[in-house]
DNA sequence: CTCGATCCCTGGACGC
DNA sequence: TGCGTCCAGGGATCGA
């Protein structure tokens, strides 16, 4: 699945391969996962891709500035989310198109930039000006840029489970299931722990673990799980370094205890039951056991208005 | 606020 | 070999 390291890898590849190219024409396949297919086709055709960058799990194809409805030039971009199985690759136009190719942008040098996505869990949108700005503001901090202080403050400021928080794109943009589990394993924190109950030390450790893992994964060009390939068609290698994700029943690399899989925040969560101690009140097997909260009355809820 | 459930979708794994 | 079934999972949405 493309998460931050995979998207970063692909965005860097596309920056090398297609930045500066002009799009001559556009062909669309299945379009129900696109925000506004007609607009995408119209706006992309004839424009120039100025640069490609990563934003969370999105790739941003920054486009040449063009006049908006009011005649004033505004910034615009094609937002591409790869979902579970999406990829975007430049290929010679003469090469047969892969099955599930849903967007094809013909470039002036005779290549085509192709978006391929069997499951269509991805998203493609064209946005400009204020709409673009507002869309980007929906997302939280970049996990590679967030300071330790801010990370600790955010994590400890909420009562959601840490796994859910790591996956919440409004908190951190770009972390998905693999890297959430890997960083929690490295930091020795159970995925079902409540964020607000982490110690400052634990939160600091998690911040460091997350950044180290993401950086290493980028160096190794991401994890190739469901046939992820970079812009050159090469698989990543980080999947060979996974310590928790996908290792149910296998020995923990630290203590030999078999790795377990539970569902947290609706997602498979792999962890070492020995290194990553379960929070109190969550003993084995028992799910749906909410921690009783003192003082969380309706009165308190009513007062809690007017907070961002 | 936070939760779980449900839906979207296809391919791969598995059982017979 | 060829079915049918189950499952994976990011994100939107909805009800609790």
Report on the architecture of this protein:
- It contains eight helices and ten strands.
- The strands form three sheets. It has a four-stranded antiparallel beta sheet with strand order 1-6-7-5, covered by helices on one side. Strands 2-3-4-8 form a four-stranded antiparallel beta sheet, sandwiched between helices. It has a two-stranded antiparallel sheet with strand order 9-10.
- The longest helix has 20 residues, at about 200-220.
- With about 300 residues, it is an alpha+beta fold.
- It folds into two domains: about 5-135, MutM-like, N-terminal (N-terminal domain of MutM-like DNA repair proteins, Alpha-Beta Barrel); about 150-305, Helicase, Ruva Protein, domain 3 (Orthogonal Bundle), CATH 1.10.8.
- The model is unreliable at about 285-308 (pLDDT under 50).
- Strand 2 and strand 3 form a beta hairpin.
- The protein binds a DNA duplex (16 and 16 nucleotides) through loops.
Q: Note the overall shape.
A: globular
The whole-angstrom Rg is 22 Å
CATH architecture assignment of the largest domain: Orthogonal Bundle
Total number of distinct structural domains? 2
Succession of helices and strands: HEHEEEEEEEHHHHHEEH
Give the biggest sheet: 4 strands, antiparallel
Percent of residues in β-strands: 15-25%
Q: Separation of termini?
A: 32 Å
Low-confidence stretches: 283-308
Q: Kindly report the spatial arrangement of strands forming the biggest sheet.
A: 1-6-7-5
Mean pLDDT across all amino acids: 86
